[in-house]
Amino acid sequence: MKLTLVQGDITEQRVDAVVNAANSSLYGGGGVDGAIHRRGGPEILAECRELRAAQYGRGLPTGHAVATTAGRLPARWVIHTVGPVHSATEDRSHLLTACYRESLRVADTLGAGSVAFPAISTGIYGWPVDDAARIALETVRQAATDVTDVRFVLFDAAAYAVFEARL
Ligand code: AR6
User: Fold this and answer.
1) CATH architecture of 2-166
2) Whose CA is nearest to atom 3 of ligand 1?
3) Which atom of ligand 1 is nearest to the CA of 156?
4) Cα→Cα distances 52→3, 59, 87, Å
């Protein structure tokens, strides 16, 4: 597996699947989620609503992943996953690990060879970037997957530097 780091906007990545740092509602939000729905257009939200109605009446649980079209994005699919909110009193690392593992499992079911990940949970959900980078890189490296090209897309120079140091 080729693992690369990119500084930039995940909505601009030409890959088979882009991973969205979503919330359980699947109805959009800020950060990566907002950018993906804004640039991808209404088709993505329409499929999210169908998924809620058909399979996830209570929302997508934290650590799970599900795919939709990528709408107008230069990717084929969006894989939505729900990261854990960081907690100072409870270790939720297994849920962050699950986001990466489950996203790659969904990518395999789609036949996606290339996947772009954001730094899940490190924005609105408050996870310290250094620890998130450790979990992300370890989990992806250890995953049994057919995905051959994994790209971590870091929005700012500081997050990029942290991932680079960990890589
Ligand atoms: N491309 C790449 N990375 C980005 C982009 C972008 N366009 N925009 C932000 N980041 P966040 P979370 C970085 O908040 O912490 C939403 O409201 C950002 O700097 O998007 O998992 C959802 O609906 C940060 O490092 O995701 C949920 O409610 C990282 O992406 C909640 O936020 C993740 O930040 C999820 O919070």
Assistant:
1) 3-Layer(aba) Sandwich (3.40)
2) 155
3) 19
4) 32, 6, 27
- What pTM, to 2 d.p., does this model score? 0.99
Length of the chain: 167
Closest-lying ligand 1 atom to the alpha carbon of residue 119: 29
Residues 6+ positions from 123 with CB-CB distance below 8 Å: 21, 30, 31, 32
pLDDT digits (tens, 9 = 90+) for 39-54: 999 999 999 999 999 9
Protein residue with its CA nearest to atom 21 in ligand 1: 121
Domain locations in the chain as residue ranges:
2-166
DSSP at 111: T
- Each residue of 98-156: pLDDT tens digit? 999 999 999 999 999 999 999 999 999 999 999 999 999 999 999 999 999 999 999 99
